[in-house]
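Long-time lurker, first post. I've been practising inverse folding by hand and with some scripts of my own, and I keep getting stuck on stretches where the structure tokens seem ambiguous. Below is the full token string for one chain I'm working on. Before anyone asks, I'm not after the true native sequence, just a reasonable design that respects the backbone. If someone could post their per-position residues I'd love to compare against what I wrote down in my notebook.
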């Protein structure tokens, strides 16, 4: 016997239809599905039974727009394929959904015209807020949101724009501590492995490390072999370790760079870690803790940041204009005790 094909209904069930089937007023249906509204247990039971029978669902978008709150939050993300960004998106979407928000993720890796069109969609749907995750989403997207009266939260960005709120990692403090840790481990020839991405957080870490070393009278080799990734870290190792005066202490501005650097140092140059070379990273991605790497790094408190953002969007007063989170060192085995 041929299976019957399921056809979508031409229209959704209305609240008026639920009221008709339940034998109650239209306002009674509205009160039943409004938190805190007054409705008798008998009426509520009738309405819920009718809604279940008809397959009725409340149009939260329409209801929210009446009160100027759609419940939609847009996440603008660059480099979603990197472990840190993926972890942040996972944590942020979970925290926001726990608060009853609907999350729309906008990937800026596409063509600029397509990204702009997608952002316009979030504005058309009256997203309550846009969260711009650290990376390289263009400033023009941020300005578009602000110009349309949208609330904007910037993560790990220092854009000189009036209007948004800022959630920052203390990158400079962590990079300064990295320099101190490597010096305390006995390293005298320091290098920083950065990238060509030039994002605010990467630039802040690189600059702070160089400044701290120079303040201690140590010149630093700075290497940017390519974009922020494993292959660039490995290439940086080839460039820095091939010379006679190679460094004995290296700070990588992300863990992905550090993992590539470590593999090249061990496999291609036969260096012992940390006896011959100390290496530090930043982010504490999952792979940093794998036995093959055991990387000493700095942990960004992803879950705390995500919960803070979700709380900010529930706060009618808006929360602080700026919030700073420390990056804590995670001790493993790539730095001498």
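-- Answer (accepted) --
I ran through it position by position. Result:
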């Amino acid at each position: 016997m041929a299976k019957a094909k399921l056809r979508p209904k031409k229209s959704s069930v209305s609240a008026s239809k639920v009221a008709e089937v339940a034998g109650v007023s239209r306002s009674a249906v509205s009160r039943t599905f409004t938190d805190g509204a007054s409705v008798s247990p008998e009426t509520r039971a009738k309405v819920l039974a009718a809604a279940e029978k008809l397959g009725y669902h409340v149009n939260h978008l329409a209801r929210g727009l009446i009160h100027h709150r759609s419940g939609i939050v847009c996440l603008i993300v660059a480099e979603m394929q990197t472990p840190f960004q993926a972890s942040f998106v996972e944590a942020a979407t979970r925290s926001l959904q726990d608060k009853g928000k609907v999350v729309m993720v906008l990937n800026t890796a596409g063509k600029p015209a397509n990204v702009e069109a997608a952002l316009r969609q979030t504005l058309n749907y009256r997203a309550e807020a846009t969260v711009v995750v650290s990376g390289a989403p263009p400033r023009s997207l941020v300005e578009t949101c602000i110009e349309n009266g949208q609330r904007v939260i910037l993560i790990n960005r220092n854009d000189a724009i009036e209007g948004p709120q800022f959630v920052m990692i203390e990158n400079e403090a962590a990079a300064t501590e990295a320099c101190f840790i490597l010096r305390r481990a006995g390293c005298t020839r320091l290098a920083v492995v950065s990238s060509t991405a030039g994002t605010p957080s990467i630039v802040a870490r690189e600059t702070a490390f160089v400044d701290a070393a120079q303040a201690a009278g140590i010149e630093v080799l700075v290497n940017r072999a390519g974009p922020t990734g494993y292959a660039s870290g490995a290439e940086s190792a080839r460039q820095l370790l091939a010379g006679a005066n190679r460094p004995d202490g290296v700070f990588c501005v992300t863990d992905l760079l550090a993992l590539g650097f470590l593999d090249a140092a061990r496999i291609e140059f036969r260096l012992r870690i940390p006896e011959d070379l100390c290496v530090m990273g930043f982010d504490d991605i999952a792979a940093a803790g794998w036995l093959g790497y055991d990387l000493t790094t700095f942990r960004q408190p992803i879950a705390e940041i995500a919960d803070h953002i979700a709380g900010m969007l529930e706060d009618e007063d808006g929360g602080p204009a700026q919030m700073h989170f420390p990056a804590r060192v995670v001790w493993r085995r790539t730095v001498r005790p």
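A couple of notes from the structure itself: The domain at 69-170+302-326 is CATH 3.40.50.2300 (Rossmann fold). Residues 6-11, 60-68 have pLDDT under 50 and may be disordered. Happy to go over any region you disagree with.
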